[in-house]
Amino acid sequence: MKDGTVGNGKRRHADRVHDPMATNKVRADEGDDVLLSEMAYVRIENMIVTGALRPNSMISENELSKELGCGRAPVREALQRLRSIGFVEVLPRRGALVTPVDVRTQLELLEVRRPLEELMVRSAARRASAEERVQMKLLADQLDEAVRTEDKRRYFDINRRTHLIEAEAANNRVLMNSIAVIHSLSRRFWYALITDTKSFSEAAVWHMRVLRAIADGNAEEAAFSARKLIDFLEAVTRATIEDPVAIGF
């Protein structure tokens, strides 16, 4: 069972992978306080990643609770989690400050991400359910369409769902929790960085190859494509550090 240990038992994908991004509001009738906090976390994280909450801006629990349609407690817990991964700095009696994007930490992040990413996709290729494999093929097709239509926002939404389903399919709770933080930090950086079609289309090629390899149960191809993806991201990061003005940092 998926209870924090590796196993073969699978629940329906729709039950296991609830997508809090499906609504702009955090509704109290959807679950208990833990679920409300999780949904608030995902919504606020996405607002920071996409720049709706800009770096160095101040945000308040009251404003966020009104926007999300929930109480202050879930927002407060979400902000504490975001503080722990460096997205915000909580200032007593003032609110939370959205931290700036730190380009140079991305190389350290990618160094940690590389082995975890390979472990994740290899495990997913072996353990994904039939439904997950179908969903991965659909996501690959959707990525292709987002690139062809130059839809950056849709690309990054699919990218987030790609990370989620790959981590879930790996069927290792420790791995999933560890790589979720890395993916959040990476996604924020890449959303700010990759503005031209060529850059995110190249990344999408490797994402699509990983998804299709996992769907086909080909662990070696999935691992190879994951390595090529990280190679590409590392090259772009190094280029950004050398010429930060070119992309607005």
TrEMBL record:
Cited InterPro entries: GntR_C, TF_FadR/GntR_C, Tscrpt_reg_HTH_GntR, WH-like_DNA-bd_sf, WH_DNA-bd_sf
Protein keywords: DNA-binding, Transcription, Transcription regulation
Segments forming domain HTH gntR-type: 34-101
Residue span of region Disordered: 1-22
Presence of the UniProt keyword Transcription regulation in the record: yes
Source domain of life: Bacteria
Species whose genome carries this gene: Bradyrhizobium diversitatis
PANTHER family reported in the protein's UniProt record: TRANSCRIPTIONAL REGULATOR, GNTR FAMILY (PTHR43537), UXU OPERON TRANSCRIPTIONAL REGULATOR (PTHR43537:SF5)
The keyword Cell cycle appears for this protein: no
Protein's name according to its UniProt entry: GntR family transcriptional regulator
Stored SMART domains: FCD, HTH_GNTR
